Amino acid sequence: MTKVVILCGGLGTRLAEETHVKPKPLVEIGGLPILVHIMKLYGSQGFGEFELALGYRGEMIKHYMLHYPHYTSDLTIDMRTGAVSKSGNGSEEWIVHLTDTGERTMTGGRLRRLRPRLGNETFMMTYGDGVGDINLRALLDFHRSHGKLATVTTVRPPGRFGTMLTEGDQVKVFHEKRDQEERWINGGFFVLEPQVLDYIEGDADSLESDVLDLIARDGQLMAYRHEGFWSCMDTIRDHQSLEALWATGEAPWKVCASSSMT
User: Fold this and answer.
1) Which of 8-12, 49-53, 117-121, 231-235 shows the lowest per-residue confidence on average (mean pLDDT)?
2) For 118-122, which contacts have Cβ atoms below 8 Å and span 24 or more sequence positions?
3) Residue range(s) defining the domain that contains residue 127
4) In what residue span(s) does the Nucleotidyl transferase domain sit (predicted)?
5) Under a CB-based contact definition with an 8 Å cutoff, are residues 130 and 187 in contact?
6) In a domain, 98, yes or no
7) Number of domains into which the chain is organized
8) How far is CA 146 from its chain centroid?
9) Is residue 259 part of a domain?
């Protein structure tokens, strides 16, 4: 089974109204943490083994995942003995590994710290703050078709993000939040080969600023273009927008987010 790494350790400073009491991946959309929306996106398409790279308030994510089967099931509690039994179809068919990768570790460093857990297999990676109607099977098939070390899903939202310069499907230069001439940006859904970890030197390495540009300059980073819905939850405004979409009952990622793994 292809593993899915989710980076869950950032401080979420631009969402401070929420993240002063919880890590960003536990900020809720429609009563459900965005982390679970993301995991359901993967799980609904057959990817059910997760490596969560924890950092800021990681113990809260551990607590949530430990009790998640109870949150999503009907419970019977015997108050005399303390015995708990659950029923219903609330449990997901997931395997979830939770690893503390350091509170101040950068994104590349978090990935590097997971190296012993990732082995020599192709793996998927995303951040704990973005949703979309991504066809993850097609993304993986595209990655396998070109034989390069890395694939990044590219999207075209408003121009406050960084950009990447492409030639065909190959990424030539990767700029995170610098230039805004190009419309395609990092959508945060990756497929990576284990050799990518060789580009990461230590905890201080940023995947976006340090590592991906090197991989692109070596001709090893390819772009999977996603024309559908995508949004990150970077600010309070983003959070409110996602909440409003969910409230309509027609959130573009909802079908995946409300499905179980097949």
Assistant:
1) 8-12
2) 118/3, 118/5, 118/51, 118/194, 118/197, 119/194, 120/194, 121/2, 121/3, 121/194, 122/2, 122/191, 122/192, 122/193, 122/194
3) 4-249
4) 3-230
5) yes
6) yes
7) 1
8) 23
9) no
DSSP characters for 109-120? Answer: HHHHHTHHHHTT
Whether the CB-CB separation of 26 and 68 falls below 8 Å is answered with no
Under 8 Å between Cβ of 85 and 75: yes
115 inside domain: yes
Residue identified by tokens 């002063």 is 20
- Nearest Cα neighbor of 185 from 234, 225, 240 is 225
pLDDT digits (tens, 9 = 90+) for 168-223: 888 877 766 554 445 789 999 999 999 999 999 999 999 999 999 999 999 999 99
Single-letter amino acid code for the residue at 135: N
**pLDDT for residue 219:** 97
CB 126 within 8 A of CB 224: no
pTM more than 0.85: yes
The answer to whether 223 and 154 have CB atoms below 8 angstroms apart is yes
For residue 199, what is the domain's CATH number?
A: 3.90.550.10
